Amino acid sequence: MRTTTQTTATVAVLGTGVMGAPIARNLLRAGYPVRVWNRSPGKAEALATLGARIASSPAEAASDADFLITMLTDGDAVETTMTGSEGALAALPADAVWVQMSTVGVGATERLAALARGRVAFVDAPVSGSSEPAERGELLILASGDRALHTRVQPLFDVLGRRTLWLDRVGDGSSLKLALNNWLAVLVEGMAETLSLTEALGLDPALLLATLAESPLGSAYATAKGRAMVERDFTPGFPLRHADKDAALVLQAAERLGHDLPLTGALLKRWDEAISAGHAEDDVAAAVTAA
Ligand SMILES: NC(=O)c1ccc[n+]([C@@H]2O[C@H](COP(=O)([O-])OP(=O)(O)OC[C@H]3O[C@@H](n4cnc5c(N)ncnc54)[C@H](OP(=O)(O)O)[C@@H]3O)[C@@H](O)[C@H]2O)c1
Fold first, then answer.
1. How many Å is the maximal CA-CA distance in the chain?
2. Domain of residue 182, CATH code
């Protein structure tokens, strides 16, 4: 647990879902005054017991914020929350910093950065790590924004993450996030299909996992997902619906560049099937149900 430091900078957190709630909790524990808003108010209310002020609209949360964090599902959700009825953007003080931490892809990040331009400072800061690292304040933060903002925002990131990677151009954080999640997708689908092959060959899938664990071919992440697949334990760490959304964002970004990603295209079709079969909220390991 980090040392509690009192600070006077007020932080608005818009979106208190699986990731936003632990982010708000860690900021409260570190002594920041925190305003929270969530579309379904019930999810934000529990944070009041830790000292968060519950706002009834994004605008109310933003009105006295020094920093505003968006941690919402996708680019459309962020845009609506910032610019819709009682949106946060018009209410933010001009010297505030908008820290966009949702995974929204490259095109939406450009759109959101353009919305902020001339209005407030914008930092693109998606994260790697799921709910448990978020709760422990051990996310990897992939940040990009004006160099002059780094020292201002870093104390916030020190509360939320184990490491901040500052990248050069605004949007580079979202680009790296897409590259990382493409790798995650390929690892998960590769494991799902290889387990299915192992069984078809008449072997115990546990043998594959044990052999990989002792081999340079193994990956700790893929092996952990493989174990979950074998045990059919789909307790969500990283839900399939988010992994699927991210694979779609990867494909959109690649298409804009005229870049072909046949593996991602193929796995996305299979993951869409697993989602249609009812596995949206399950962990990404449920990709195995389509294998
Ligand atoms: N979960 C992970 O392991 C993980 C890891 C790294 C990055 N991420 C990324 O972090 C972001 C948040 O993920 P999460 O796991 O916290 O998701 P979540 O638990 O599903 O929360 C999503 C949040 O977005 C809100 N929302 C959705 N659509 C909205 C709309 N149209 N208008 C306003 N609010 C809307 C939801 O409000 P309601 O409560 O009203 O539905 C909720 O507050 C996503 O971009 C995800 O890809 C997640």
1. 65
2. 1.10.1040.10
Cβ of 80 below 6 Å from ligand 1: yes
Asked whether 71 lines ligand 1 (CB < 6 A), one says yes
Give pLDDT tens digits for 153-206: 999 999 999 999 999 999 999 999 999 999 999 999 999 999 999 999 999 999
E strand or H helix at 264: helix 262-274
Are residue 80 and residue 161 in the same domain, yes or no? yes
Q: Give the closest residue to 8 by CA, choosing from 33, 43, 38.
A: 33
Nearest residue by C-alpha to atom 10 in ligand 1: 102
Known catalytic residue at 43 = no
Q: Do 114 and 140 contact (CB within 8 A), yes or no? A: no
Q: Each residue of 95-152: pLDDT tens digit? A: 999 999 999 999 999 999 999 999 999 999 999 999 999 999 999 999 999 999 999 9
* Cβ 241 under 6 angstroms from ligand 1: no
What total number of domains does the chain contain?
A: 2
Q: Are 233 and 259 in the same domain?
A: yes
The atom number, within ligand 1, closest to the CA of 246 reads 47
Which ligand 1 atom sits nearest the alpha carbon of residue 38?
43
